[in-house]
Design goal:
- The protein has one domain.
- Helix content is 62%, strand content 1%.
- The protein contains 14 helices and 2 strands; from the N terminus they run H-H-H-H-H-H-H-H-H-E-E-H-H-H-H-H.
- The protein has helices at 3-10, 19-29, 36-52, 68-94, 100-126, 131-142, 149-160, 176-201, 213-258, 285-290, 297-302, 326-333, 336-354, 362-366, and strands spanning 265-267, 270-271.
- Strand 1 (265-267) and strand 2 (270-271) form a beta hairpin.
Length: 373
């Protein structure tokens, strides 16, 4: 593939940068413009999905494609978001033309950016080998006070997805609000335990200096101090507000990605290997641009070391399919009766297709099967 063709194919994944001028417009103009960030992120991309449809094409993961222009946006985003967030924390608290409600709504939108884009890019970067990419992931996660997500995701979620040990796997019939109350404290606890267990295998205590939680806490304390120094108490409150919204956005996506999907328990705490069918797949073109192929989640869990442009799309006979892209699905998840109406029959069809031999799903529904050995 020529360089020009490669750039042309990669450029749509840079659409996240459009959120930066929208955030600046909201801060400087105020009024109705403060609602543009969530409207653009959720509704505009949902509309684009309806217009552009699905993209089921795949790059050859062994084809030697030049990924420079794909990687560039993930490397550029961390400093862009850092500067944008600090500027907003300095500018908005002192902006006389912005009322209290406008500031709250505006930083709701900032949380949509730092959660929908920032945490998603951190997710891509934490899976890579270069230390500088993982450091960028740590910076992005510190901006939303969710640094432990790196440990939880790499050490717990990918190892134990679709089993009772994975807090992040939403159970069948579990509403999002109940899931959110369970996963926020549960994820932090499981992340610390996973790091402590690794240290114990080296004969070290859980609070040894090599525990990455020290780095997490330092980075988060630094962000809190910056927010206070730049924006005073108002800036600190707005920073905490956007962090909460970002975490809510992340966990909405986590809820959607694995809802009701379980690995078969083989007995004595043994489970089948992770396969594409243990994550919901979505091939909606526009939201895959915004989320750098996160919706190709079936392949991400099957081959977690693949960079996002190489993630493969799976057909219906290989992985369960979401009816809509993540923006629509996460909005539906906020209304549990609507969510169950849309998704429960799909979970039941998935069970019938892949596990016709399982007749008692009660232990899977409640997470009562033994944890992985």
């Amino acid at each position: 593939m020529t360089t020009l063709a490669q750039i042309r194919r990669a450029i749509p994944f840079w659409m996240s940068l459009l959120l930066v001028p929208i955030a600046l417009l909201g801060a400087m103009q105020g009024g109705w413009t403060v609602v543009l960030l969530p409207v653009f992120t959720w509704y505009f991309f949902s509309l684009l999905d309806a217009i552009l449809g699905l993209d089921k094409s795949n790059l050859d993961p062994e084809g030697g494609d030049d990924l420079t222009w794909y990687r560039a946006i993930t490397l550029l985003w961390a400093p862009v978001q850092f500067v944008l967030l600090l500027w907003m924390l300095w500018y908005v608290p002192q902006a006389a033309h912005l009322g209290a409600l406008e500031k709250i709504v505006l930083f709701f939108g900032v949380g949509v950016i730092t959660g929908t884009v920032g945490i998603n890019y951190a997710h891509e970067l934490m899976h890579q080998r270069p230390k500088y990419e993982r450091a960028m992931a740590d910076l992005l996660l510190a901006m939303v006070l969710y640094s432990h997500f790196r440990s939880e995701h790499l050490l717990v979620h990918h190892r134990h997805v679709a089993t009772p040990r994975d807090t992040v796997t939403a159970r069948y019939n579990e509403g999002f609000h109940r899931f959110f109350a369970r996963v926020v404290p549960g994820g932090a606890i499981s992340a610390f335990r996973a790091e402590a267990a690794m240290l114990a295998r080296r004969g070290l205590g859980p609070l040894h200096r090599s525990n990455p939680f020290w780095r997490y806490w330092a980075l988060q304390a630094g962000m809190l101090a910056l927010a206070l120094a730049l924006g005073g108490w108002t800036g600190l409150a707005l920073f905490l507000w956007q962090a909460l919204i970002a975490i809510w956005q992340l966990e909405l996506v986590n809820y959607v990605e694995h809802y009701g999907l379980t690995r078969e328990h083989l007995g004595a705490g043994r489970y089948e290997h992770v396969k594409p069918r243990h994550s919901w797949n979505a091939s909606h073109k526009a939201t895959n641009w915004l989320l750098i192929n996160l919706q190709r989640h079936s392949d991400h869990h099957y081959k977690p070391d693949r960079r996002f442009p190489l993630l493969q799309n799976y057909a219906e006979d290989e992985a369960p399919q979401l009816p809509y892209g993540y923006p629509v699905m996460t909005m539906a998840a906020m209304v549990p009766p609507l969510w169950r109406r849309v998704m429960n029959r799909r979970v039941r069809a998935w069970r019938k297709m892949y596990y016709p031999g399982i007749t008692d799903w009660a232990p899977y529904n409640s997470g009562a099967n033994p944890p992985p050995a």
